[in-house]
Amino acid sequence: MSETLSWRAPRELARWLSAIERGDAKALAKVRALYRTPSPAHVIGITGVPGSGKSTLIATLARALREAQHPVAVLSVDPSSPFTRGAILGDRIRMRDLAGDPGVFIRSLASRGAPGGLAAATADMVTALEAAGFDYVFVETVGAGQDDVAIARLAETVVVVEAPGLGDDVQAIKAGLIEIADILVVNKADLPEAQRTAQMLAAALALGFETVGHHGAAAMPAAQDVQHGWRVPVLLVSATKGEGITALIEALRQHRAWLHTSNEGLRRKRRQAEAEIYARLYAQLARYVQMHLDQAALQRWVEACAMRTAHPEEAAEALLAHVLQAIKPC
Ligand SMILES: Nc1nc2c(ncn2[C@@H]2O[C@H](COP(=O)(O)OP(=O)(O)OP(=O)(O)O)[C@@H](O)[C@H]2O)c(=O)[nH]1
Ligand SMILES: [Mg+2]
User: Is 265 in the pocket of ligand 1 (CB under 6 A)?
Assistant: First the structure.
């Protein structure tokens, strides 16, 4: 593999990403080196309930950003995404605009089976895409729990996509997604109920769901928010018709500018770094446990706990003591 990563060489880039995904030592060493050189890419998390139009929205955004000459990368952490099936849109005709353009790079990865969903590999792949010179890196996850929390660990700006007519009135509230949103998009604005959905979301934000852009921070009253922080905008967009896209791109730009001019940008980076370190620490510990677990002892403990002659906590303590003993010399 060539040493340089560039969006202009998509095949080479794809090979690097595969190497990162399978944990190849050379690729991981490269990522560590690349991480130390900050890149100007804007990393944007796009999340929302299934079917809200995340993939369609990203494709439309990508098209608009390409028109302005920006190279765009998309990481889709969603096994059911249309990206996975090789189509950017349900509408394959639109897709042809993007196909064959190295300035739009699309990659899917299955989160299924990865502990914690959006795994370390995703973060490392984002680092590689940043280094490859993309101006925008979009990460799509389905708003269903774990992955969204992880996306807040990764993205500079989190966009939560909501849409009318998906069964519930405002599902983002129910799913707790609002708390991680920097920008709320009500997609499918071409549908009649969109206005009402937007009003309900705006009302929910005004009632105190609004945050100061802190991922997972306690809710703040809206008035305070206007003074000290970022006011989460609710934007009506139609991804299929391309309406509201310019305003969304402007909101992305403004959010980034706010991060840079306020202390929040740095605070967020610290929170993200700490969360990332913890995630990797736990993953390393889990690997040690798997590697050094005394299987015979485990079976004995299983029997004992099943017969209730021992408590599972005792078993865990004893097994861990053995694992720690085994890794001590390293
Ligand atoms: N009317 C209308 N339909 C849209 C719009 N955007 C997306 N859709 C449709 O909504 C459906 C879901 O779109 P996707 O882009 O696959 O949604 P998603 O959020 O990526 O879905 P998952 O990845 O499965 O969670 C598709 O049938 C789209 O054509 C829009 O602006 N208006
Ligand atoms: Mg999708």
Answer: no
